[in-house]
């Protein structure tokens, strides 16, 4: 049995954000497009922003969203930014290695992090919550020419939108290090997050087909 990675309170807190995002204490509106609203909070110690995202995936269920997000093999099929991605168990905890393709003339980044999915029944109904955070477990060696991101945290919650779709909340922060101009980071946040959710929505639609092919291939 795997060792518990995150505390119950952490899951409870992020579930509350789906129902009522906590935007006091310096959070500011950043952008809105394609049913996605983004707020951000400036971190003085790093000069970077934390982000909170509220969005809707209109025609896919929260169960499928959670399954797609957790399925690393499928992620390699639909996410063009994935260079290498795998999971292994270290000291009873699931540790993920994620090598991300960055734009031309920029060094790729990689991440080593823990991740956990739990399901809850809350005021707004049944939810699927995922927490992820950088870890040093596994002693994964760094690669030449690839910058290791060791300050990464992400939280996601999926719930029914009351119709045929999914209401989603995401908290995201990482420090990509290196000399990346601020305007590129801002552009990535403004376009990358809605773009990711759009790509994920398309992937959710095709997930039953992928599962069927995988089942056939392994039977």
From TrEMBL:
Record field: transmembrane: none
The GO molecular function terms of this record are: phosphatidylcholine binding; phosphatidylcholine transporter activity
Pfam families noted in UniProt: START (PF01852)
Q: Source organism's superkingdom? A: Eukaryota
**Which SMART domains does the UniProt record give?**
START (SM00234)
Q: Does the keyword Phosphoprotein apply?
A: yes
Q: Which GO terms describe its cellular component?
A: cytosol
Query: Where does it live in the cell?
Result: Cytoplasm
Q: Provide the START domain boundaries.
A: 26-209
Keywords assigned: Acetylation, Cytoplasm, Lipid transport, Lipid-binding, Phosphoprotein, Transport
Subunit structure as annotated in this protein's UniProt entry: Interacts with ACOT13/THEM2.
Protein's name according to its UniProt entry: Phosphatidylcholine transfer protein
Q: Which organism is it from?
A: Branchiostoma floridae (Florida lancelet)
């Amino acid at each position: 049995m795997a060792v518990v990675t995150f505390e119950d309170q952490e899951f409870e807190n992020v579930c509350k954000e789906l129902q009522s995002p906590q935007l006091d204490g310096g959070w500011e509106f950043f952008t809105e497009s394609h049913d996605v609203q983004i707020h951000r909070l400036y971190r003085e110690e790093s000069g970077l922003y934390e982000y909170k995202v509220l969005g809707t995936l209109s025609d896919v269920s929260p169960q499928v969203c959670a399954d797609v997000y957790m399925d690393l093999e499928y992620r390699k099929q639909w996410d063009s930014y994935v260079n290498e991605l795998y999971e292994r168990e270290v000291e009873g905890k699931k540790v993920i290695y994620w090598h991300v393709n960055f734009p031309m003339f920029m060094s790729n980044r990689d991440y080593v992090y823990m991740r956990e999915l739990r399901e809850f029944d809350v005021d707004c109904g049944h939810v699927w919550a995922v927490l992820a955070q950088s870890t040093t477990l596994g002693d994964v060696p760094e690669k030449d020419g690839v910058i290791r991101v060791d300050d990464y945290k992400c939280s996601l919650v999926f719930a029914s939108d009351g119709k045929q779709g999914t209401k989603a909340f995401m908290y995201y922060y990482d420090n990509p290090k290196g000399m990346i101009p601020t305007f590129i980071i801002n552009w990535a946040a403004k376009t990358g997050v809605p773009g990711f959710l759009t790509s994920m929505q398309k992937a959710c639609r095709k997930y039953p087909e992928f599962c069927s092919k995988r089942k056939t291939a392994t039977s």
